[in-house]
Amino acid sequence: MPQQTLSRSTAQLRVDGVSRVFGDRRVLTDVSLVLGPDARVGLIGENGAGKSTLLRIIAGLDEPDAGSVAVPARTELLRQELPYPSEATVGRVLDDALAASARAVAAVEDASAAVARGERGADRLLADALEDAEATDAWSAGARRGEVVAGLGLDAIDDERTLGSLSGGQRSRVAMAALLLARPTALLLDEPTNHLDDDAVAFLERTLAAWPGPVLFASHDRAFLDAVATRVVDLDPAPRPFADVIAGDDAGGGYGLRSSRGGYTAHLAERRAERTRWERRFAEEQEELNALRQEVAVTARQTNRKDTPRTEARGAKKFYSDKDAKVTSRLVRNARVRLEALEREQVRKPPPELRFGGLLGPSGAPGGGPLALLTRAAVEGRLAPTTLAVDPGAKLLVTGRNGAGKSTLLLLLDGRLAPTAGTVQRAPRLRSALLAQDVVVEDPMQTARDAYRAALGERRAEAVPLSVLGLVAGRDVDRPVGALSVGQQRRLALAIAIADPPDLLLLDEPTNHLSLALAEELEEALDSSPGAVVLASHDRWLRRRWSGQVLSLG
């Protein structure tokens, strides 16, 4: 089997030559990793590069087409959706997470009694039971429950609350709490800081730093990568020989893996330097290839002319002519050998990186005065009374703990939600667009190009083609929306929101699921955008560099 479970005492995670192809799309090629018990490895890459696929393969939820995986006996993946019905309670989920600890304590008690009775093999059973109890931190299970619940900001949620009554963010934090309480040896985390506020992220950072086994996490959270990662592994294309890339493959997608010590800041500098070296090497090799092809063609023609029959009058010069022809032939052979070798070994062309096309200004902003005015606007149970004026061209960052009402405020500004108290006034003919945290896919079989055209209309889609916005790769525009990753779907939704520039752009956690390079380009574009922008974000990296207004809720 591709996945092998190691003994209970082994805390090393190994990935050897894993490859995965979906239909005609190569996602992973010959990926190899080794994580020791102290490794905290951040997995990064463009949306669709295979981060989630690799985590699922390691967790045993997907099979590789080639390669193998060996994991510790207790390896768990953070689930984005809990495997419970909506009527299940929070208390039940947390109790189930601690079940292994409870079983370990019971096993120790049973084995201890067997030792006292002098039963054969009881000593071995007791040793195994104690090892399991230590691995699950069984003796402090009760205290850990309180610590984890408080650390993730779940202490205000009653154990009797059903999962169906929780917000998406609250369910995500319950899933994280269940994973940490289960105390697996190896942790696999997919975007672990989504839906966590600053206090919860700080708690998670401390917890992972002290984790007794390997941790592999995919994340777009730059501050989290800097704080936690001992190494960064990048699944974006790396400089590989051209001959390795299958003809017709999507710009070599799925080929290569880069690893660097330290967090995101160190990796970013190394990646930029490597990209420069790659581009320079490709240019130099192409120049040499062109020169060799020219040399072979020209010298071969010269050889052919020297091999033409000679008249008797030139017989005296035949010896020298033949000698010259041999030298020329040797030069042709040498050039051909070098040409063939370089054609095999040449580095592939660096695939174009997605570059955000920027934000256009609104076509016709409403007249003078605020675009939107909230006067003690509140939504019962979701947003406390808030007074706010959003002027044309304003740049406003909304921060606050989970549950403070950031998403609710954006819904009020967009006109999708009415306040239960206070008032919300929007300028006449105000055009707003909202990028929500959760993208609703109405027709999963519709291609990205068709969904873009359907949302904007034929004329606007032709005036601003999807490709010029730099948010959806050319290889993905004709793929079904349902086949795109969550991040790719959000980028498509962002493209639709900005293609016909609104007067007021509302962004809810815009850097979630966004590639690191695109996140930085989006931040720069927001700062210089002529339109009004209101965004809600937990992204500490973005907040540290924000130069506009800030509204803190809660």
What does this structure look like?
It contains 16 helices and 18 strands. With 554 residues, the chain is of the alpha/beta class. Among the domains are: 77-184, P-loop containing nucleotide triphosphate hydrolases (Rossmann fold); 272-345; 372-553, P-loop containing nucleotide triphosphate hydrolases (Rossmann fold, 3-Layer(aba) Sandwich), CATH 3.40.50.300. It has a 6-stranded mixed sheet with strand order 6-7-8-4-9-10, with helices on both faces. Helix 2 (90-97) packs parallel to helix 6 (168-182), helix 3 (99-116) packs antiparallel against helix 4 and helix 12 runs parallel beside helix 14 (486-499). It is flat, with a radius of gyration of 30 Å. Mean pLDDT is 83; it is low at 245-254.
Describe the secondary-structure layout.
Layout: E1 3-5, E2 13-22, E3 25-35, E4 40-44, H1 51-58, E5 66-71, E6 75-77, H2 90-97, H3 99-116, H4 122-135, H5 141-151, H6 168-182, E7 186-190, H7 198-209, E8 215-218, H8 222-228, E9 231-234, E10 258-261, H9 264-306, H10 318-345, E11 372-379, E12 383-390, E13 395-400, H11 406-414, E14 421-426, E15 432-435, H12 448-456, H13 458-463, H14 486-499, E16 504-508, H15 516-528, E17 532-536, H16 540-545, E18 549-553
Parallel strand pairs: 1-5, 4-8, 4-9, 6-7, 7-8, 13-17, 13-18, 15-16, 16-17
Antiparallel strand pairs: 2-3, 2-5, 9-10, 11-12, 11-14
Helix pairs in contact: 2-6, 3-4, 5-6, 9-10, 12-14
InterPro entries: AAA+_ATPase, ABC_transporter-like_ATP-bd, ABC_transporter-like_CS, ABCF, P-loop_NTPase
Domain ABC transporter: 13-276, 354-554
Coiled coil: 268-345
